Amino acid sequence: MFFADKCRAEYGINFPPPAADVAQEIYDIHMLTMQITTVLLLIVFGFVFYSLYYHRKSRGFEADQDFHNSWFGNWSWVVVPVMVLGVDLTIAGKADAVLKKVWDVPKAENILDVKVTGHQWWWEFDYLDHDIKVESRYVPEKESGDLYLREVDNRLVLPTGQKIRFLHTSADVLHAFWVPELAVKKDAIPGYVTETWAELNREGVFRGQCAELCGTWHSRMPIVVESVSPQQFAAWVDDQKAIKVAAAAEASADKTWSLDELMAKGKTLYDTKCAACHQVTGMGLPPAFPGLKGSAMVTGPIEAHLEIVIKGKEGTAMQPWGSLNDLEIAAIVTYERNAWDNNTGDVVQPSDVKQAR
């Protein structure tokens, strides 16, 4: 019984309730298609059951060897395709109009631009109009509970009643941004920028997923959209800007940080930004993601360690992390050089990172 409870699937079989007008139109077309399909299914199965019952051998029925020359045998090849084509055309007119609406991003003065960048394996959301950047990563099972692989540390917060333009791209391989309630599903392609849009009509939390097989941890790229009122969104923007200012002030402060302070800050940053590839244990996933425990790079010269963190390594999955501030990089490098029994005793200060840039 316990095993059955764990394996029981979700009983809901339809699309989730839409949260945008375009998504509602797509949902309506889906329901129209299902209604037509249901009627056709009943008609076809009616003929099948009728034929099985009245034409069974026990009633002495003998197969018509000349059926193909009968009226129905000749005209069914025309009638059936015409009926199918009629169904297609019934749906196609509405579907074409909705498809144009989906792909044609409306021009509006107050449209909110959000750049969506896929990474292996996390999402980056840039609110271009507000100079805010949000990094969104999955939450481990012990913290997410029933929402394992469905919850993130930082949600994509969006306002209702405002048109939102999503600009999709990728920093490494193909990804795909997909949130069913918003109607959008768009590939994120390295070196290209593609567009979709939405206008949320209700508040709530909507969950999606990367819909393009993007590597080992493809399943660890959930998307969580939190739709809030315009007033709540404005307050959230103010909070994010205040956090950004405070972080910049802390990073630029003329302070000498202790090993313990950098290790505490570095562990938090490492677990969110680096552990996806190099693992929490520092063992990595060789050969693509080398281990850092006992690594010659991590225990070698500090200058080389800083360079690969800041600039990345061309031709590998190691991307540049120069967008982090000096304190964040100093904390990560200090943590890597002293965690997992590396114990170099090295303390990297923000001033060292500034000089390495």
Automatic annotation (TrEMBL):
<dbReference type="InterPro" id="IPR036909">
    <property type="entry name" value="Cyt_c-like_dom_sf"/>
</dbReference>
<keyword id="KW-1278">Translocase</keyword>
<dbReference type="InterPro" id="IPR036257">
    <property type="entry name" value="Cyt_c_oxidase_su2_TM_sf"/>
</dbReference>
<feature type="domain" description="Cytochrome oxidase subunit II copper A binding">
    <location>
        <begin position="109"/>
        <end position="239"/>
    </location>
</feature>
<dbReference type="GO" id="GO:0042773">
    <property type="term" value="P:ATP synthesis coupled electron transport"/>
</dbReference>
<dbReference type="GO" id="GO:0005507">
    <property type="term" value="F:copper ion binding"/>
</dbReference>
<dbReference type="InterPro" id="IPR002429">
    <property type="entry name" value="CcO_II-like_C"/>
</dbReference>
<dbReference type="InterPro" id="IPR001505">
    <property type="entry name" value="Copper_CuA"/>
</dbReference>
<feature type="transmembrane region" description="Helical">
    <location>
        <begin position="75"/>
        <end position="93"/>
    </location>
</feature>
<comment type="function">
    <text>Subunits I and II form the functional core of the enzyme complex. Electrons originating in cytochrome c are transferred via heme a and Cu(A) to the binuclear center formed by heme a3 and Cu(B).</text>
</comment>
<feature type="domain" description="Cytochrome c">
    <location>
        <begin position="261"/>
        <end position="340"/>
    </location>
</feature>
<keyword id="KW-0349">Heme</keyword>
<keyword id="KW-0249">Electron transport</keyword>
<dbReference type="GO" id="GO:0020037">
    <property type="term" value="F:heme binding"/>
</dbReference>
<keyword id="KW-0679">Respiratory chain</keyword>
<keyword id="KW-0408">Iron</keyword>
<dbReference type="Pfam" id="PF13442">
    <property type="entry name" value="Cytochrome_CBB3"/>
</dbReference>
<dbReference type="GO" id="GO:0016020">
    <property type="term" value="C:membrane"/>
</dbReference>
<keyword id="KW-0813">Transport</keyword>
<dbReference type="InterPro" id="IPR045187">
    <property type="entry name" value="CcO_II"/>
</dbReference>
<keyword id="KW-0812">Transmembrane</keyword>
<keyword id="KW-0479">Metal-binding</keyword>
<keyword id="KW-1133">Transmembrane helix</keyword>
<dbReference type="InterPro" id="IPR008972">
    <property type="entry name" value="Cupredoxin"/>
</dbReference>
<keyword id="KW-0472">Membrane</keyword>
<comment type="similarity">
    <text>Belongs to the cytochrome c oxidase subunit 2 family.</text>
</comment>
<dbReference type="GO" id="GO:0016491">
    <property type="term" value="F:oxidoreductase activity"/>
</dbReference>
<feature type="transmembrane region" description="Helical">
    <location>
        <begin position="36"/>
        <end position="55"/>
    </location>
</feature>
<keyword id="KW-0186">Copper</keyword>
<dbReference type="Pfam" id="PF00116">
    <property type="entry name" value="COX2"/>
</dbReference>
<protein>
    <recommendedName>
        <fullName>cytochrome-c oxidase</fullName>
        <ecNumber>7.1.1.9</ecNumber>
    </recommendedName>
</protein>
<dbReference type="InterPro" id="IPR014222">
    <property type="entry name" value="Cyt_c_oxidase_su2"/>
</dbReference>
<dbReference type="GO" id="GO:0004129">
    <property type="term" value="F:cytochrome-c oxidase activity"/>
</dbReference>
<dbReference type="InterPro" id="IPR009056">
    <property type="entry name" value="Cyt_c-like_dom"/>
</dbReference>
